[in-house]
Structure prediction request, 95 residues.
Amino acid sequence: MAAAPGNQYAANGRRWRDAIDRALGMRSRREGIEALDALAEKLLTLADEGDLGALKELGDRLDGKSPQAIVGPDGGALQIQSIERRIVDPQGGNG
Prediction:
């Protein structure tokens, strides 16, 4: 069976989020929210202390992840040799 189009890794992110939601859900609703707030506070504390991982995570959560450039060899422009558009008769005729 062919792979579905789109982001093949998106489901992994959802599985991780779902696991975190389940773990928080095992605590009472109030404790789960307080635990999440405590983790957010810990992230801010680590960022205040200059932890690069915490700073990156905080930036990604606030601004979104930085877009990654699609570049060619040695960081230069992409080299496109040619683009060909071909219309094919699915019935195999020359029509």
